[in-house]
Each structure stands twice: as structure tokens, then as C-alpha cells.
Design goal:
Mean pLDDT: 75
Strand content: under 5%
Helix content: over 70%
Order of helices and strands: HHH
Structural class: mainly alpha
Number of helices: 3
Distance between the termini: 33 Å
Shape: rod-shaped
Radius of gyration: 20 Å
Length: 82
Amino acid sequence: MSDSKENANRGRAGAVAGALVISLCSVLPSIGEAAGATGLRASALLAPWRPYFMVLAFVLLGAAKADGWKPDAADHPPCRHF
């Protein structure tokens, strides 16, 4: 695999990981409520870190998108004018 494809895969994996971490803010309270705990307490545990998780997710999504826009050199050989 080329370096750009490896970087794209890392960016996508990071974006997915960030999205999963952000989803914990809504998933954990639901699990806690199903188990009988209060949703307020479960969400309060991750509330201080929520802004950081959101910034991380958006940065990684942006990096993955920007890396996806770059053309691969092998796919686009240089033009030759005769």
C-alpha cells in the first residue's frame, strides 16, 4: 500500500474512533437507564470531556476528507504535450 492510502486509512480509523467516543455520551446513559441507574449520572461522567471528543472527531473527519481529495500519482500520470 502507498503512504497516502495508509494515511487515509489511519485518518478514517481515527474519525470512526472519535465518532464512537462521541456516541458514548448518548449510549452510556441509555445502557444505565436499562440497568436501572440514572441517565444523568452516567452522562455526567463523560460530560467534562465531551468538547474534546467533539473537536477530535471533527479534526479527524476533516483530515480523512482532505486526504481523500488528494489524487494518487499512480492514478494520474503526468500529461505529455506533443
